[in-house]
Amino acid sequence: MSRAFVKEGDDNIDDLPERSISAHPNDVTREGLAQIETEVNDAQKALAAAQGAGDRPAIARASRDLRYWSARRGTANVAPQPQDNNQVRFGHTVTIIRDDGRGQTYRIVGEDEADPAQGSISLASPLAQALFGKRVGDVVPVGAGKAEILKIV
Question: Are 26 and 64 contained in the same domain?
Answer without folding.
Answer: yes
